[in-house]
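thread: overnight batch results

M.L. [08:02]
morning all. the overnight job finished for the chain we discussed friday. pasting input first so we're all looking at the same thing
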Amino acid sequence: MTEQTLTAKTVAIHPTAIVDPTAQLDSGVTVEPYAIIEGDVTIGSGTVIGSHTRIAGGTRLGHGVIIHHGAAVGTAPQDLKYAGERTELFIGDRTIVREFADLNRGTAVTGRTMIGSDCMIMAYAHVAHDNRVGNHVILANAVQLGGHVTLGDWVFIGGATVVHQFSLIGAHAMIGGGFRVTQDVLPYVIVGGYPLKTIGLNRIGLERRGFSTDQIRTLSKIIRIVVRSKLNKSQAVERLRAEMANVPEALEVAAFIEQSARGIVR
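M.L. [08:03]
and the structure it wrote out:
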């Protein structure tokens, strides 16, 4: 590894790596053997670009990001409507992208794909065009997200699970491995099974994140109203707003249901 000064910033670039001179690399960036960094790329301080990776034009990486061997980051969307327009991929601070993951930039519909901070995207995962991925999200090995998928903060998706395009996954939801998600997943729940169903509250995950006993008890009541009752979506929303108007989590779940276009996993 050799040190080079790019625009007065010291970075470590392996001699075999190819870095476009217009790419903006902040202080402390490391570029490992045979990596390719195209033009119109910005990389925050302390980020590591692993060997044999490709960081395509339009990629914006935050601070302390780690891109492992063979990952393809910011490549063109796999969408027949894409006509080469300039779009972007944003990845927040300290996110880890493991081997051979494939992260596409956006299309003209939204202009960008966005991945938050402190995420873990494991090997062979695919994040498609125009996705919105929150903070602290974990995608296990070979998770496949279709285009325009939205994941809230603290979502966990088990290995080899596929998520249909335009799906919404609420914050703190956990999806088991090997499943097919074709409808929206409520916040705070665990889903799994064939066909996919809401199993219950993601109690252990919430406890680990500091939710109190009272909060968890309230969330259990909210999920029972939505999932276990025989109310339709509109009736469930009406009941939440009527009975729990002062509970932020109830209003959050009600707003999620109203936003859902694909139906809720119940």
